[in-house]
Design goal:
The protein is α+β, with helices and mostly antiparallel strands. It has five domains: 80 residues, Alpha-Beta Plaits (2-Layer Sandwich), CATH 3.30.70.100; 125 residues, no CATH class; 85 residues, Calcium-transporting ATPase, cytoplasmic transduction domain A, CATH 2.70.150.10; 145 residues, HAD superfamily/HAD-like (Rossmann fold, 3-Layer(aba) Sandwich); 116 residues, Calcium-transporting ATPase, cytoplasmic domain N, CATH 3.40.1110. It is built from 25 helices and 26 strands. The protein has a seven-stranded mixed sheet with strand order 14-26-25-24-15-22-23, sandwiched between helices. Helix 4 packs antiparallel against helix 7 and helix 10 packs antiparallel against helix 11. The two termini are 39 Å apart.
Length: 761
């Protein structure tokens, strides 16, 4: 932990294009005194750490990063060009907007950034330069003597190797001698010494090509985040004094009203106050069917108004809208590294020095012990050095995770990092909450059964107790009173009774709206009333009792219909070998009616603590995913190996669960597991490619079958193949049942934290 003098600092680091780059930055700064909790994310271009500025000033951290050839600038400032070029064109800088860096909202700045063509990047220029030098050397060989051609290839090697050697020296000074740049420098220089100048030049060129391809892959992954940022329009039509005025979308404040015309994108999260229109939310949630929006219904920033004009009241500022939070979630997820990734990272730290040691033995043992030719075995040792680079292995996991996170975000499936993906891939049981998860969460009142007074009086008291309620049952009671034109009675001291009901002082007496269990505990039910409750519950209805000052006023029955895709979602899970179960605070009869219609087991009458106990019991012998609405079921979500919140981008869904489903579709639960399993299969393929190619060429190199240029192809080729294989996940469609895979067998710890909340049902 940091002491009182330490504080968290954050920078943007430019020029990183692979996991190895992030490792180099981490290694350079974590050795500095007073530095702790270093977090480097190469896709988000973020360096975050805890710094004791009395021991190490921020300028020293920046100097350590710049020494490696990367650019670094404090969070919110204009990005800095790394040495040797920059990954973005000048037009991508905040200065191009006419504002200072601090004035430009980060999401808008991300939207402005456009990846340049490959030949405009520093690594692209290195490819062109080394390629031109190599071609020129070959031309010299055709036109001149072999000796002249040898010096031409040597010159091409030295010029192309210079920037690589400079980085190798900088990293060695930072305490990282075993890097791919150092191995390349030693191998190319050694090849020149033993007279293999042509191969040395070819190796430098192929290395540059591999570096460029890594940069292109990283740029493509970042394009996904930039595409999200571009969903929100730059301007909005703000209503002021009955007129509309065009203003920057990032300047909108909570409470302001904007006009969204047909065909326009919604500029901010908000609620419709006038108009009825179909809104295309597919850019945000992936839902292809337009959603009907009418007064009172929420809309997302970035969605497209398809039919009629809407007046919308802004409910979230630009930096807190749904798109901005999705971007933050995807970027932060990169820091939640998968257990497999952490293992490979530790393995690679041992692997590279071991290969260097093996190469040294290959170079000296055969000549010294067996009288073999020095040139031949030094050549083999140099090739072995190139094979020893673990780049493909190191990138095998983060490349797949990054692609999976991007594919998931496009389909409304959010997961907080690799640890969550690994846990989701191993899921054997899925526990569903009922209200708001398997059902729409919009119950309606079906029966009013007055026991004392009239139905109107019963509804007036109940609505008074539930005024301002956030629970779906309370909202339904208030909605019925408003629809019937019944004024709710004034109430004071309202409070929720978690899992049971609510109470308030109405007309000077305490009135309660609660479950039959709570009413039974209060002693206000007769046998006749219990019988009536049983009849209503057998019809699949939820019943609440209303009483005041110990006198029963009546019963209110409500029904919440299952989601249209709930039964299909359950069927898909069973087809994947996953066991679904419903956990609900509702009564046993209603739970049985709902679960029978959907085809899954159930546990009924559960308080929040009971749901937690059920999840923990399941988790002892199974890998459990808990799916709830993100508010009422937070304790159970925290107890599961993976907690998934449904809720169309609510604060809890995006900020407190391990994962979230934006489209409110039960079938997306199966889709999330499919994506996780496909990701783990992709990772296993990548590891097999990386280790398999290296294993084959290691043997062929030691036996003299393959040489230097094949060795660099083994490294570069493996890195390219691993990256391309990972990018296949960008095309993955989680809704396709054919994509289902067998459960992942690896064991991993659970990650993430969820704030606790109470539950009424």
């Amino acid at each position: 932990m940091a002491d009182g003098a330490s504080r968290q600092r954050e920078w943007r680091v430019t020029g990183m294009d692979c996991g190895a780059c992030a490792t180099k930055v981490r290694g350079a700064v974590e050795r500095l005194p007073g530095v702790a909790e270093v977090d480097v994310a190469f896709l988000a271009e973020r360096l975050r750490l805890t710094l004791d500025e009395a021991r190490t000033p921020p300028e020293r951290v920046e100097g350590a990063v710049r020494a490696l050839g990367f650019g670094i600038a404090p969070k919110g400032a204009a990005p800095e060009r790394p040495k040797g070029g920059f990954i973005l064109p000048d037009g991508a800088f905040p200065a191009a907007t006419g504002k200072s860096a601090e004035e430009v909202e980060p999401m808008a700045r991300a939207a402005e950034e456009v990846a340049p063509k490959w030949h405009a990047t520093a690594k692209g220029r290195l490819v062109l330069g080394t390629g031109t030098l190599l071609a020129a050397a070959w031309a010299v060989r055709l036109a001149a003597s072999a000796e002249v051609a040898h010096w031409a290839f040597a010159l091409a090697t030295l010029i192309g190797l210079l920037p690589i050697a400079r980085r190798a020296v900088a990293m060695a000074r930072a305490g990282m001698p075993f890097t791919i740049e150092m191995l390349m420098t030693i191998a190319a220089a050694g090849a020149l010494v033993i007279g293999a100048a042509e191969e040395a030049a070819l190796v430098v060129f192929l290395f540059a090509v591999g570096e460029m391809l890594e940069g292109l892959a990283a740029s493509k992954a970042r394009d996904g985040i930039r595409a999200l940022a571009r969903l929100v329009p730059r301007t909005a039509l703000l209503e002021i004094g009955g007129r509309t005025r065009e203003v920057p979308a990032e300047s909108l404040k909570v409470g302001q009203v904007v006009l969204v015309r047909p065909g326009d994108r919604v500029p901010a999260d908000g609620a419709v106050i006038e108009g009825v229109s179909g809104v295309d939310e597919s850019p945000v949630t992936g839902e292809s069917v337009p959603s009907l929006k009418e007064p009172g219904v929420e809309v997302f920033a970035g969605s497209i108004n398809a039919e009629a004009a809407l007046r919308i009241r802004v409910t979230r500022s630009a930096e807190d809208n749904t798109v901005a939070r999705i971007i933050r979630l995807v970027e932060e997820a990169e820091s939640a590294r998968a257990p497999t990734e952490r293992f490979i990272d530790r393995f690679s730290r041992v692997y590279m020095p071991a290969v260097v040691g093996a190469a040294l033995l290959v170079a000296v043992v055969p000549p010294l012990a067996f009288g073999q030719a020095w040139g031949e075995w030094v050549y083999r040792a140099l090739a072995l050095l190139l094979i020893g680079c673990p780049c493909a292995l190191v990138i095998s996991v983060p490349a797949s995770i990054a692609s999976a996170l991007s594919a998931g975000a496009r389909n409304g499936l959010l997961m907080k990092g690799g640890a969550v993906i690994e846990a989701a891939a191993r899921t054997t049981h899925v526990a569903f909450d009922k209200t708001g998860t398997l059902t729409h969460g919009r119950p309606r009142v079906t029966d009013l059964v007055p026991l004392a007074g009239t139905a109107a009086e019963l509804l007036a008291v109940a609505a008074g107790v539930e005024s301002g309620a956030s629970h779906p049952l309370g909202k339904a009671i208030c909605a019925r009173a408003e629809a019937d034109g019944i004024a709710q009675l004034g109430a004071m001291g309202a409070r929720a009774i978690p899992g049971k009901g609510a109470e308030a002082v109405v007309d000077g007496a305490t009135a309660t709206v609660g479950s039959p269990r709570l009413a039974d505990e209060a002693g206000v039910l007769t046998d006749e009333v219990r019988s009536r409750i049983g009849t209503l519950e057998a019809e699949g209805k939820t019943v609440v009792a209303v009483w005041r000052a110990g006198t029963p006023l009546g019963l209110i029955a409500l029904r919440d219909e299952p989601r249209a895709d709930a039964a299909e979602g359950v069927r898909q899970l069973r087809a994947m070998g996953v066991v679904p179960v419903m956990l609900t605070g509702d009564n046993a009869r209603t739970a049985a009616a709902v679960s029978a219609s959907l085809g899954l087991d159930h546990r009924a009458g559960l308080l929040p603590a009971d749901k937690v106990a059920e999840v923990r019991t399941l988790a002892r012998a199974a890998q459990v995913m808990m799916v709830g609405d993100g508010i009422n079921d937070a304790p159970a979500l925290a107890a599961a190996h993976v907690g998934v919140a449904m809720g169309s981008g609510t604060d809890v869904a995006l900020e407190t669960a391990h994962a979230a489903i934006l489209r409110d579709r039960v079938t997306d639960v199966a889709g999330k597991i499919r994506l996780a399993r496909a990701t783990m299969a992709n990772i296993r393929q990548n590891v097999a490619i990386a280790l398999g190619l290296k294993g084959v060429f290691l043997v062929t190199t030691v036996f003299g079958i393959t040489g230097l240029w094949i060795a660099i192809l083994a490294d570069t080729g493996a890195t390219v193949l691993v990256t391309l294989n990972a990018l296949r996940l960008l095309l993955f469609r989680p809704e396709r049942e054919s994509a289902a895979m067998r459960p992942h067998a690896a064991i991993m710890p659970r990650g993430g934290r969820i704030r606790l909340a109470t539950d009424r049902q």
